[in-house]
Amino acid sequence: SPIAGDANCPSLLEVGHYRQSCPAAESIVRATVEGYFSRDPTVTAPLLRLHFHDCFVRGCDGSVLLNTTTTSGPAEKDAMPNQSLDGFYVIDAAKAALESQCPGVVSCADILALVARDAVSLATAGNTGGASLWEVQTGRRDGRVSSAAEAVANLPSSFADFAKLKEQFASKGLNVKDLAILSGAHAIGNSHCASFAKRLYNFTGNGDADPSLDPSYAAALRARCPPQFDNATTVEMVPGSSTSFDTDYYKLVVSRKGLFHSDQALLQDQEAGALVYFLQGSSTQDFVQRFGVSMVRMGRAGVLTGSAGEIRKNCALVN
Ligand code: HEM
Ligand SMILES: [Ca+2]
């Protein structure tokens, strides 16, 4: 049976939680994201990733936004897999605009969920005007704890096999379908060489390449990321199309050109593999409709509601 904070328990969050307390909340967030997106469409990918990294560690409670302090110990932000997170300035700008309109009302955890929806809506191929593609449930409250060690333990590794990914998603109340659909987020954005270089040079420790990677694509990636790669070098998830949210990711996975072992690992499972093949032939519209459903499910993971937690004044600091 569903438990509070489980992705399968729909009762605690609601669409339009701020309808009375801050009627402009969603339009303020939307205007903030639009402002940044119109100047730089690459902003969508880090914003989407922030919500994912929040929800997988202590649930969607804004823990990813907290700074390390002298008393807290290293926060999530300072964990290795979070060194490449970006877009915090957009969350802070939305929070500042919300605080001036309705002080102390809108949680940082909800801002992450709304920003992810708005950023993806603006980046979705064919979605003229960036109309909102799904309704976001709100009413999350902000946590007071952020631990780098918990981030390392809970965030999936790009070298993971299917069984491990399935287990980590299940622990957040997400099923194989959610895993396959949410992985489609890798239609946008970039990756540092370190997140996949082992696939190119030393996959099992014998100087071999990952057999699940297309050999000609591996060669192209080796040219971008030589053995002594520069830590700042990044590669597009989808070559030439990394700001367009669409089904290209699935086309790459089918052709063994997924950037991460974890992308290619979807084909290790019958159910996930069938979905990958289905989605690569689907319309963007069909894919984003499904993506929205799984995002809402992810957004319920481990949430704090009611009087739990707090509404932070500054997203980087507990009150
Ligand atoms: C299935 C397990 C997943 C793994 C192992 C994984 C791993 C990674 C890694 C290693 C990177 C590149 C980091 C870097 O080197 O710069 C990345 C980027 C990204 N991930 Fe994932 N990810 C997963 C699922 C997801 C999900 C569920 C979402 C969102 C719903 C997501 C959204 C993104 C985005 C948008 C980027 C690009 C970020 C940017 O360009 O700044 N990922 N992911
Ligand atoms: Ca969190």
From TrEMBL:
Site residues (Transition state stabilizer), renumbered to this chain: 49
Cofactor(s) listed in the protein's UniProt record: Ca(2+); heme b
GO molecular function terms listed in the Swiss-Prot or TrEMBL record: heme binding; lactoperoxidase activity; metal ion binding
Domain of life: Eukaryota
Binding site for substrate: 156
Binding site for heme b: 186
CDD domains registered for this protein in UniProt: secretory_peroxidase (cd00693)
EC number per UniProt: 1.11.1.7
Family of the protein in this entry: Belongs to the peroxidase family. Ascorbate peroxidase subfamily.
Protein's job: Removal of H(2)O(2), oxidation of toxic reductants, biosynthesis and degradation of lignin, suberization, auxin catabolism, response to environmental stresses such as wounding, pathogen attack and oxidative stress. These functions might be dependent on each isozyme/isoform in each plant tissue.
Protein name: Peroxidase 1
